[in-house]
C-alpha cells in the first residue's frame, strides 16, 4: 500500500536523519536499506514534488540537482553525512550536444564513501565493477549485469561502480554516506588498473592546503607556527601534507615535530614517510 505524499516525505526525512545518527557508515547504510527494498514511497514523493508544476508549469523544485555530462542527479533528502539521490543517465535519444562528454572511459574513481544502489530501470543494465588491491596500487575491473530491482552496497574506498550511457535511459536510486575524516579520492587507469593519483576529498582542507603552498612559495616563515597547529589534522594524508609544506618553509621548526611524527603518528604510512625523511637527512649528514 502506497503512502500518502506527505507521509512519504516524512518517512524519507526521518530515515535519512536516523541514518545520519549512526555510529559508522555500515550501520548508516543498513538504516536506509528498507527504503531500497520497498520503493513504493517514490511514487508518492514524485507526486508531491510535481504538484507545484500542475499549478504553474514554470515553477521549480526545491531539491538540489546537478548534471555531469549525460548524468543527472536529484537529491531527495540530505542530513550530513547521509544523502539519498535519484540518478538518471540519459539514453542515446535524450543526449544532445549540450549534454557534454560522458565520464572518461579511460579511468575510474573511488570516492571513499559508503554507498547503496538500486536499479530502478525495467531492463538489465551493463556496468563495470572495480575493486582496489590491498596495497592500493592497482584496481581490477570486470563487466557485470545489473538486474531490475537489484541492490548493491559498496565500500567506495575499495569498490566502485561505473555505468556508462547506453541506448535507453537508466534510473538509479542511490544512498551515500560520507566518512569522517574524508579519505582521499583515488583514480585508476582502465583497462590496466594502474594507480593514477589521489586528491583530498575534504574541500575545506584542500583550500587550506593551497594556501599553505602559496605561503611556502612566498617564503612566509611567520606562518610556520600556524602550520604546526595543523599537524593534528584527522586524516593521515592531511597531516603529511602540512608537514611537507612546513619542512619546505622552515625545516628547523619542522624537525622536532617530524621526529615525533616518525614515532607516534597513528598511521603507519605517515610514520614511514617521516622516518624516510629523517633517514635521508642522516645519510646526507654523514661524512663521506
Characterization of the model:
By secondary structure, the protein is α+β, with helices and mostly antiparallel strands. The chain is 39% helix and 26% strand. The chain has eight helices and twelve strands. The protein has helices at residues 5-20, 25-37, 41-55, 203-218, 224-228, 236-249, 251-264, 268-285; strands spanning 65-68, 71-79, 82-89, 107-110, 114-119, 125-132, 139-146, 151-155, 159-162, 170-177, 185-189, 195-199. The strands form three sheets. The chain has a six-stranded antiparallel beta sheet with strand order 1-2-3-10-5-8. A three-stranded antiparallel beta sheet has the order 4-11-12, with no helix packed on it. It has a three-stranded antiparallel beta sheet with strand order 7-6-9, with no helix packed on it. Strand 6 (125-132) and strand 7 (139-146) form a beta hairpin. Helix 6 (236-249) runs antiparallel to helix 7, helix 6 packs parallel to helix 8 (268-285) and helix 7 crosses helix 8. The protein starts with a helix and ends with a helix. Mean pLDDT is 84; it is low at 1-5 and 97-101.
Amino acid at each position: 500500500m502506497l503512502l500518502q505524499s506527505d507521509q512519504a516525505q516524512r518517512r524519507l526525512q526521518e530515515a535519512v536523519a536516523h541514518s545520519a545518527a549512526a555510529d559508522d557508515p555500515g550501520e548508516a547504510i543498513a538504516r536506509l536499506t528498507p527504503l531500497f527494498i520497498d520503493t513504493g514511497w517514490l511514487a508518492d514523493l514524485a507526486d508531491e514534488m510535481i504538484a507545484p508544476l500542475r499549478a504553474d508549469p514554470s515553477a521549480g523544485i526545491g531539491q538540489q540537482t546537478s548534471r555531469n555530462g549525460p548524468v543527472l542527479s536529484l537529491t531527495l533528502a540530505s542530513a550530513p553525512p547521509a544523502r539519498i539521490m535519484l540518478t538518471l543517465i540519459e539514453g542515446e535519444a535524450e543526449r544532445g550536444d549540450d549534454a557534454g562528454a560522458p565520464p572518461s572511459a579511460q579511468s575510474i574513481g573511488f570516492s571513499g564513501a559508503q554507498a547503496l544502489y538500486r536499479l530502478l530501470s525495467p531492463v538489465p543494465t551493463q556496468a563495470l565493477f572495480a575493486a582496489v588491491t590491498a596495497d592500493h596500487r592497482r584496481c581490477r575491473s570486470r563487466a557485470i549485469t545489473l538486474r531490475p530491482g537489484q541492490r548493491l552496497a559498496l565500500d567506495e574506498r575499495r569498490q566502485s561502480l561505473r555505468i556508462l550511457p547506453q541506448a535507453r535511459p537508466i534510473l538509479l536510486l542511490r544512498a551515500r554516506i560520507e566518512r569522517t575524516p574524508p579519505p582521499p579520492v583515488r583514480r585508476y587507469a582502465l583497462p590496466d588498473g594502474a594507480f593514477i593519483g589521489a586528491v583530498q576529498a575534504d574541500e575545506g582542507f584542500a583550500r587550506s592546503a593551497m594556501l599553505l603552498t602559496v605561503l611556502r612559495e612566498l617564503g612566509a616563515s611567520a606562518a610556520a607556527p600556524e602550520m604546526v597547529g595543523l599537524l593534528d589534522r584527522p586524516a593521515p594524508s592531511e597531516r603529511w601534507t602540512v608537514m611537507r609544506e612546513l619542512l619546505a618553509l622552515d625545516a628547523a621548526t619542522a624537525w622536532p615535530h617530524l621526529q615525533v611524527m616518525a614515532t607516534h603518528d597513528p598511521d603507519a604510512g605517515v610514520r614511514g614517510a617521516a622516518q624516510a625523511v629523517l633517514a635521508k637527512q642522516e645519510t646526507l649528514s654523514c661524512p663521506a
